Amino acid sequence: KVESNNLDVEVKSELETEEKGMEQESTRESDSNILDVSSDYPREKHISIQRHLADLAKLADLREDEKKRCPLCPEEKLKACYGYKLHRHLQNLHWKVSVEFEGYRMCICHLPCHPVKPNLAGDQTLSNMGAHYHCIICSATITRRTDMISHINRHVNKGETESRFATVPAPKSSEVLKELATDVQVLPNYSTPQKTDSYFNPKMKLNRQLIFCTLAVLAEERKPIECLDAFGATGIMGLQWAKHLRSAVKVTINDCNENSVTMIRENCHLNKMKVKLDTVEEDNGEAMGDGEENTDTIEVTRMDANVIMHLRAFDFIHLDPFGTSVNYLDSAFRNVRNLGIVSLTSTDTSSLYAKAQHVALRHYGCNIVRTEYYKELAARMIIAAVTRAAARCNKGIEVLLAVALEHFVLVVVRVLRGPSNADDSAKKIRYLIHCQWCEERIFQKQGNMAEENPYQQLPCDCHGSMPGKMAVVLGPLWSGALFNTGFLRRMLVEAVQHGLDEAQPLLKTLACEAECTTPKQFSTHGPPDENKQEECGVYIKTANASTESFLIHGKRKSEEVIRNTAKRQKSENSAEHPAFYYNIHRHSIKGMNMPKLNKFLNYLSEAGYRVSRTHFDPMGVRTNAPLAQFKTVLMKYSTPTYMGAQAEAPGQRLGDTQLGEQAHGKAGGAEFMEDDKCAVAAALLTKDCPAPCAAD
């Protein structure tokens, strides 16, 4: 009997040493940062991962007549106890707080697998802080249950659903999407940013079409051009460039995520493109059919966006990070070539649209408030940050395009080298004075002398008639033009040629907005000019023979060529459009029915003002008319809400001669306030009086 007892003790000691060895191996695995999910050899799961509560109870070998230890708790935390008590302990402490995944339960573990911070005495005591979970996929140790659930969801979103201990790995589910004759393969939950490596947003299709038209116009100026998609994700944008522009562009798609780079290479092979990775070309010959030849080559790189823009020079750079792009502006303007183009898409609309004003101040160094023209305010705020970044590299900018929609703000600028261009661009950054009562606004005058009352620069009289401070200073903002008419016309031509149906209406609206004309006045036919050619009914300007030399890639441009290029760009710019716009609903008169928007545009145009619609606001009106005259015209052609009243409309008492006299000066503001009071009073009188009395 004594010998048998000694054998039992030896066997138990050997089992304990094996368990300790297994625990040490699991600790080393959890501490390592290498999460090799695609390992081919199976591994045993941790004892805390079970399918049923009975399987967990079998580990304790419950018996009513013997005391047993908990298999997931050390002896210092729970001493050996009888079976009924241990079963209750396993059910309440371990099983109820477990995390379920594919039929398995990851129970909470109190064994010394997870390192605990030492206490004041210097020793690592076991406490409640040592409780943790073991991941069923990557065997990582995580302390909180909510963090464990998020950790598992990240594996699922990335397609890493096979377990390490599974003998047959499950295939990754993928989906193939098609846009602009380009196929891309994406992983599940592809439309959720920061949760998948292959982020693809179908709502940004319009944004991708605008950038494609921009690159197509640049490709007509110089060939070939080196273009960079700094944040490739699935590589959809770079694939569209290479597939449709072909030899005119040399595409480089970059991403810092290894899984994204792998996905980009697969998408290149899916679209029968050659991949140049680490100066080695890979050709997927099996993907091509018999007799098909495709010489298009796409370079795929894996590095930080700031690094690749510091190392190499490009003609076209597109930045589309998650959120703000201010962290990459200095690198983008460092090596971009002269007359190149930088486009950036910002999706941090909460800070740009004045919902998080402190974030806008932190990222862009700009003080803003919520206004009726908040979308244009966001575009000018981004351009101001771009201008400062370009000026630090002794470069100026020319704004070609600025679009602010619901999901993003797109800004496209042309780079002009030279300190003088940088100074000219920096002078267009100014502060804006905004009246919070009537929404009037004006850019602050340039000068170094401090004014005693800068609010007097506002055309309105709210600062004098209202008590307290009614105006705020916003900025610094870009005060120059937001559009280049000639460039937009050429983009419209490219959109028609490539069949981009969604971008054509927006580009036509932008062209009208750049010229500050209505769609009826917008003419696609221009006067005859030897330097113009007609494409798809739109006249565009082409470079002269003397300017062809600047298209030669890699040669230094002479002073004469740069002078001719500047003249060509200056000729493309028409009269600068007025800054900001007014919302017709914001300034409507209570008790009056305002006219239709298109008719109101004609009324303002007949009054002698430049007027157009704006893409920033469907009910917005861009005009050079002061706010007082804007309201006067709106009130003149508004009708009373109650049609039973036949009294003379108060707006009819304002003749055309009186409206013309009010077109200049601040006197119209006071007269408008009196007429506005009369209009409200007349509307109230016609409401209460009967019809015969009103007729009399």
Automatic annotation (TrEMBL):
SUPFAM superfamilies recorded:
S-adenosyl-L-methionine-dependent methyltransferases (SSF53335)
Q: Which UniProt keywords apply?
A: Isopeptide bond, Metal-binding, Methyltransferase, Nucleus, Phosphoprotein, RNA-binding, S-adenosyl-L-methionine, Transferase, tRNA processing, tRNA-binding, Ubl conjugation, Zinc, Zinc-finger
Q: Give compartment(s).
A: Nucleus, Nucleolus
**Has the keyword DNA-binding been applied to this entry?**
no
Please, which domain of life does this record's source organism belong to? Answer: Eukaryota
One MF term from GO for this chain?
tRNA (guanine) methyltransferase activity
Reactions accelerated catalytically: guanosine(27) in tRNA(Tyr) + 2 S-adenosyl-L-methionine = N(2)-dimethylguanosine(27) in tRNA(Tyr) + 2 S-adenosyl-L-homocysteine + 2 H(+)
Q: Where is this region: Disordered?
A: 1-39
Basic and acidic residues compositional bias: what residue ranges? 1-31
Matching InterPro entries: SAM-dependent_MTases_sf (IPR029063), Trm1 (IPR002905), tRNA_met_Trm1_C (IPR042296), Znf_C2H2_type (IPR013087)
Domain C2H2-type residues, every copy: 135-155
- Record flagged with keyword Zinc: yes
GO cellular component terms attached to this protein's record:
nucleolus
An example GO BP is: tRNA N2-guanine methylation
State the similarity comment.
Belongs to the class I-like SAM-binding methyltransferase superfamily. Trm1 family.
Question: What's the protein name?
Answer: tRNA (guanine(27)-N(2))-dimethyltransferase
Q: Which organism is it from?
A: Columbina picui (Picui ground-dove)
